[in-house]
From TrEMBL:
This is Membrane-associated protein. InterPro entries: TcaA_2nd, TcaA_4th, TcaA_5th, Zinc_ribbon_dom. It comes from the Bacteria. The chain crosses the membrane at residues 64-83. Its main location: membrane. Residues 90-185 form the TcaA second domain. Residues 3-24 form the Zinc-ribbon domain. The keyword Transmembrane helix applies. It comes from Neobacillus vireti LMG 21834. Residues 264-335 form the TcaA 4th domain. It is a single-pass membrane protein. Keywords: Cell membrane, Membrane, Transmembrane, Transmembrane helix.
Length: 488
């Protein structure tokens, strides 16, 4: 009886292969029940059949299973190695660099969102941020510093020369619970603003901030450094003013940047020759009065604001000139009616000052008496001396009295008449813009060669001019003889 030399399965005569294990048939010994060996004779070796392995080989199903297992193991190892490389710190730096340089704002937004960057991350903001990194900073150096950080185990922020934090590597949650993730986090800048005007409103990130005091720095919020323009709006009683200024993030320090809003609102000082007159701006009553405040504004200096004043008088309301505000400084609101009156008053004041020189501590009438006494006395001396030069300085060269006095001296000389001044009295005097109107009563003794001597009293009206050096007669307007009697 023949048995398989591999598994011991009984073989049929002339069977070339074992049906149990596929081993080639051959001679094998198997112990008998009596302890003797039994000789197994095998048939000659035929050709190997397809589908059966050689001595010691595995079956086909086993081989397929083993192959699949090996393939799966290799795939898992490869996938592990590939996936692990996708979440390294170096990969995060590479993705950030590509997003910035290639202006891939969608990818840049995703990177910064995953890192927890505290900013709105609108496309406009991201555009400005990318420009800030590449144009206003040395982006190659930033990437180099990030790569050096990625090679370590602890990360520090990348800063610029003004100690502004720009970016940093951060570790995120594990991917598939196995792989560490890394992202680039950007540091926003705190934006502050100031205004040269009080109560200026500044829109920022959908809200409005109020800058209450001029020059006070107010925090608006945070934003990624880049392209940002602030707009200030001032709404006052007289004008609405706006101003825009670009935030210069290159001037930031410690991640804080301040922008100054300069609104073209100026203050003007209003002068007027009429006090307590109501001030109007663009036809509307402001509630302010001339002479009661230091400055007016703020207003625009582009000529869009017109101001004037109205003064209520017993005779009716009068209006000043209208002024367009086109520059900072002084505005003069003048009432023509008052100007004429004030000019007259000023002139009268000037002539009174001239009169006061004749008797500083006396009354105006006494001062006029001093002048007229001096003038009449000097005139009589000139008449009797027949010397016009003695009186010429008391006469205005432009008035009729100058020539008339010269002729009168010649007349007296021709008639041989002399005079004696007795007295002068001031009956009335009125100040004018150029001098005085004076009414006098004068007494003379007049001596004739060919007729009786006379004591005469005259009432005369003079026009006097006030010059810097004193009073002068301009004209003798009227002379009336009040009394004439012979001297015994």
């Amino acid at each position: 009886m023949s048995f398989c030399r591999n598994c011991g399965h009984q073989l049929s005569p002339h069977q070339a292969f074992c049906k149990n294990c596929g081993t080639k048939a051959g001679t094998a010994s198997k112990p008998s029940s009596g302890g003797e060996k039994t000789t197994i004779v095998t048939a000659p070796e035929p050709q190997m059949r397809s589908g059966h392995g050689a001595k010691g080989s595995l079956s086909t199903p086993v081989k397929w299973v083993l192959a699949i297992v090996l393939i799966l193991a290799a795939g898992l190892i490869g996938a592990h190695l590939y996936v692990s490389k996708q979440f390294t710190a170096e990969k995060a730096v590479e993705e950030f660099e590509n997003a910035v340089t290639q202006k891939d704002y969608q990818s840049l937004r995703a990177i910064l969102e995953k890192s927890g960057t505290d900013a709105q991350l609108s496309e406009e903001e991201l555009k400005g941020y990318a420009a800030f990194l590449t144009k206003d900073n040395h982006f190659e150096q930033i990437i180099k510093d990030l790569k050096e950080e990625a090679a370590g185990t602890e990360f520090s922020p990348i800063v610029d020369g003004a100690e502004n934090k720009l970016v940093t590597l951060v570790e995120g949650p594990k991917k598939f619970l196995l792989y560490k993730q890394y992202f680039i986090k950007a540091f926003p800048f705190t934006v502050q603003a100031s205004s040269n005007l009080e109560d200026t409103k500044v829109p920022f990130n959908g809200k409005s901030k109020l800058l209450k005091k001029p020059g006070e720095e107010v925090t608006l919020g945070k934003v990624l450094p880049g392209s940002l323009t602030l707009k200030g709006v001032y709404t006052g009683k007289y004008v609405t003013l706006t101003s825009e200024t670009a935030v210069d993030f290159k001037e930031a320090s410690d991640n804080i940047v301040t922008a100054a809003l300069e609104l073209d609102g100026k203050y003007v000082t209003i002068y007027s020759n009429g006090d307590d007159a109501d001030i109007y701006a663009n036809g509307k009553k402001t509630g302010l009065k001339t002479g009661n405040f230091d400055s007016f504004g703020p207003v625009s200096t582009d000529g869009s604001v017109e101001i004037y004043a109205v003064l209520n008088r017993a005779s009716g309301a009068i209006k000043s000139n209208v002024v367009k505000i086109e520059r900072e400084g002084e505005v003069n609101l003048q009432f023509k009616e008052l100007a004429a009156e004030q000019e007259k008053e000023a002139a009268k004041s000037r002539v009174m000052d001239v009169l006061a020189r004749y008797a500083p501590n006396a009354s105006p009438k006494e001062q006029m008496y001093m002048f007229m006494s001096e003038y009449v006395s000097r005139s009589v001396q000139a008449f009797n001396s027949r010397d016009f030069s003695m009186i010429s300085s008391y006469l205005s060269p432009t008035g009729p009295a100058y020539a008339e006095t010269e002729k009168y001296i010649a007349h007296l000389e021709q008639k041989g008449i002399t005079e004696e001044f007795v007295n002068v009295e001031i009956l009335d005097m009125q100040a004018t813009e150029t001098g005085f109107k004076v009414t006098t009563r004068e007494e003379y003794n007049i001596f004739y060669q060919d007729s009786p001597n006379k004591h005469m009293v005259f009432e005369s009206i003079y026009t006097l001019e006030a010059e810097d050096f004193g009073l002068r007669e301009y004209s003798l307007d009227k002379t009336t003889t009040i009394k004439s009697e012979d001297i015994q």
